[in-house]
Every structure is written in structure tokens, then in C-alpha cells.
Amino acid sequence: MSTPTTPNTGLRARLDARVTSARTAVRASTVGRSDWMGKTWRVAAWIAYRDWMFTRALTVWAARHWMPTVFGVVVSVGWWGILTLAETPGDRITGPLLALLVFLSPGIVLGLFAMIAPARYRRRVHAHRMAAYWPEVARSCSLYRAEPDGTVTVSKLRHVSHQPGAVVLRVETFPGQTPDTLHRAAPAIASAYRAHGFEVTPVKPGVLDLALFTTYRIAPVMARMPVLEGANPDALPVGLSRTGHVAEMVVRGRHTLVAGATGAGKGSVLWSVIGGLAPAIHDGTVCAWGLDLKGGVELEMGRALFGRVAYTTEDSIEVLRALMRVIDRRKESMRGVSRLHVPTSAEPLHVLMIDELADLMAYSEFETRREADRLMSKILTQGRALGVVVVSCVQNPRQEAVGQRNLYPQKIALRLDSDVESDMVLGPAALQAPAHEISRSDPGTGYLVREDGAPVMVRFAYWPDELIREVAQRYAAPASHAAPEPRDGADAANAWAAAARRTTPNDNAGKPTNEDAPAPRTRTRKPRAPRKPRTTRPAVPAATPEEV
Ligand SMILES: Nc1ncnc2c1ncn2[C@@H]1O[C@H](COP(=O)(O)OP(=O)(O)OP(=O)(O)O)[C@@H](O)[C@H]1O
């Protein structure tokens, strides 16, 4: 069966056929010939092809590095002028002098470059050295493939760039290699280049940026008066990263666990979040709740920013219940409408800040602990999409203190006491984020591990008391940020408890107490019938020494 063809397709096919036959004819009469003429054509074609490749690479390089290109053109034109002038009959000095100058010109050009832009020159030289060392590093870190003919292919180093405090290697996988291999080799590469740490960032499929840090520390950062544009719960600026960029943290849609030994700087994280969101709190799109089980020492400083706070375990349970009521209401209002809550001043994003989670979850009375555990589990599992997020700070990340570690998709590990604790908080990310190695003299420094598992070292901004007071005064929370009243009947948490036949203090609200209850009926028990004497087998008498 023939397919109908349009006149256009027919023309194109005819043209293609002619081009193909012309190419075949040209090949046959040039490089396809088997005699010496064919050989000459092949050599000429090879030279033309190499020329074309060189010109293309040179053009691309010139377009990328226009400054040295312009400089080179100016110098060449200058030389041409001098050489023209030197063509004076009888002059025996200018020619050799110019030849010497031409011989020395690369050094002169580089020297001028080093004089004009010394920092840039040093970076170029450093990048060049790192690139020269790369094949050896790649081979020793198993980033190579050996062909049967003995050739060795290593992962390609695309380019080396410098950022403040880091050198970034852009590395490309070769066919047959996966980015995972590069991820695994990253610690060895960092060690080969004597780097203080590393971060791996995927750029595109098969291409990764490996940042090697030239400094171990991030200098302290002071917080400043926040502005409304910065108060973005999707990308909240909280400090500086090792590359000197502003480190951002996602607050909306993420629960965050902050773990750090005493004096590690959990206060800086706490205030970077609440203080950073202060303008949004003031305009009503964020509502802050606080549990400070150190008796309010931390949160009272900025009390005006919070809608509701609790400083005792009993009050904390009430606050958690109130948050559950928010979740219950949102569930009803968002059902079938949206799957991720968008904060507005009528329906704000609720951020619960807990300072010292272990006081509530591990060191309180059994009943309180059980109730807190139940409410926290519900808030952590249901709150995220409904616009209720939790930021919990804890000193001791061990199991009994933070049983719900896995319910926090985002983790911040400040200085920790041991590698076991780093492992507990960060899981597999601890390999790239050794929080136990953070120095005591660097409070506020920690690893921020987002949902994707890639850790970033951050120095959280330091919030002095005066600034917290000033921010609280300027951006006080609106009066409407009071906790919602309980609806008639039990809230969802209590319904859940009732379903599980567990009693909570709240289940008993409004129910008759034991004083109202009728006296319990006492059952008169019949006296037990006397036991029948047991029929026992006759005991075997112990053997006497004579019998043995
Ligand atoms: N980002 C920071 N930059 C510089 N210094 C900081 C920073 N954060 C905290 N500090 C210093 O470290 C000290 C301890 O900080 P902070 O009270 O926040 O620690 P913490 O982890 O909350 O300790 P604890 O759990 O014992 O209360 C502060 O008094 C301050 O001097």
C-alpha cells in the first residue's frame, strides 16, 4: 500500500536524495580513493576538521573571556605597529629586541594580568592547579573506567570556580557511571584536596557541583531588624552558609527538629525563625505559639510576638489541644478545596515553637507524657498540610526524649556530644554533616538538613536580647491571635483517644465525678470450698551411698 505524499515532502525527499548522492560522489573522488591521492585528501580533511574544531573552541573561549581577548587584540596590533616601524635599513638592534620581547610576551601578559587583577590571577592559577590534579584524584577515588585496550576514562571536570570560602568543582559522570558514585566519592575527594568539608549539589542529570570548603568556620552573624519582604515562610533567611550566601529555611509545610548540646545556640535558631517571621506575625499571616518549659526564660523576651504561650507542662497540654482544634477546623474547611494550606490573615500559618521538647516528652509525669505524646503525634502527622507546623528544640536527641524524630522532615543539628547523636538526628546525612565536630567556640553553627537529605552548614544569626525586645514591640502579634475555643463535645484528639479506649484528663470534662456516682455495689462472695487433697505419686526415696 502506498502512502499519499504531499508535493512538499516529495521535493524535500528529492533534495535529500541529491545531497546524499552528491556527498557519496565527492567522498568517492576524494577521501574514498585508495591511491596516494586519497591519502592526501584524507590528511587535508583531517587538518581542515582540526582547524574547524580549534577555531570553534577559540571563538567560544573568546566570547566567554572577552577581556583577555580584547587585551590580546590590542597587544597584537601594537606589536604589528612596532615591527613595521622597525623595518628601517641598517637597524640591528630593534629586530632581535622585538624577537626577545615576543618570546617573553606570554610572561609579560601574565605578569600584567597578575598586576591588574591579583586576586583573579591567583584564583585562575589555583583553579588550574586543581584541574591538573583532578585526573590523579579521580583515579585514586575510583572515579574511572579502564578500557580493555588500557585507556582510562575518568569523570570529567567541567570547570573549577571560586566562591567565598569554597572552591566548586563541576563534575560530570561518564556513560555507565551514576551520580551516586560521585556522591560516595565526595569525602575522599575532599580529603585528597585537603578541604575542610564538602557539599554536593546536583546541577542537572549526571552533573554535580562539589563545593570544597577552604574554611572550617563561618564567622558570627548578627541579626538585623526584619522586614516584611524577608518574612517568607517558604524561604526564610536565617543566617549565612559556608559559601557566604544567605541560608534560607522552609517553615511552611515542614516540621523542624533542632538538636544541640547545651550552649550550642538553639536560641539563635528559635529567634531566627520567630524573629524573621515577625513582620508576617504582625500582619496576621503567621501565628506563633510557644512552649517554653524552662519556665519562660527564652520566650518571655519576645512574648508579644506569640499568640499563646505555656511555661508549664499542664499549660503545654492545653496549648497542644488548642492546636488540635485548629487542625480539626481546617480539616473541615479544606476538605475538597485544597491540599496545602495557603496562609492568609483570616487563616494564618500556625508555628508552634517548643523550647526543650524533652521536658514535655520525657521528663514529665507519666500521664502528661502520654497525653503530650498522643497530641504531638497527631499534630506532627496531620498539621503540615493544614498549615500547622512545629519547630522543636531539644538538647538530648536520644530515643526517650524524641521518639517522634522521624516525623520531622527537616532537621537542624547544632553542636552535638557524640557521633552517635549526629547519627540519631540526621540518619544517613550524618556522614556529610558531622555535627559532633562543630567547635564549642562556634555557637549558632549547625547543619540544616532539608527534606531532600542534602546538608548545608549554616551559622544562624545571633539575636541579642535588645533586638528581640525591639522586634516584639514593633511587630507585636494582633489581638485576634488567641487560641480558638473548644467546640462543644470532644475534639478530634479526644475522639481518637476514646476510640482507643484510653482516658485523658479532657475526656472527663463535664462527666460525673466519683462523688456524684452512686456508691459501688459490693458483691458478696461465697466462701471458697475447701480444696480436695491432692493425689500425689509416692516420692522416690533418695539413694543411699551404699546403694550407689
Ligand atoms: N549565632 C550565634 N553567634 C554567636 N554566638 C552565639 C550564637 N548563638 C548563641 N551564641 C552564644 O552562645 C550562648 C548560648 O546560646 P543559647 O543560649 O542559644 O544556647 P542553647 O543551645 O539554647 O543552650 P541551652 O540549651 O543550655 O539553653 C549565648 O549566650 C551566646 O553568647
From TrEMBL:
Keywords noted in UniProt: ATP-binding, Membrane, Nucleotide-binding, Transmembrane, Transmembrane helix
The keyword Protein transport is assigned to this record: no
Pfam families (UniProt xref): FtsK_SpoIIIE (PF01580)
Source taxon at top rank: Bacteria
Organism for this UniProt entry: Promicromonospora sukumoe
Record protein name field: FtsK domain-containing protein
Positions of region (Disordered): 479-548
Domain FtsK intervals: 235-423
Entry's transmembrane regions: 66-86, 98-119
Annotated ATP binding sites: G260, A261, T262, G263, A264, G265, K266, G267
Compositional bias of kind Basic residues: 522-535
Low complexity bias (residue ranges): 491-500, 536-548
GO MF, one annotated term: ATP binding
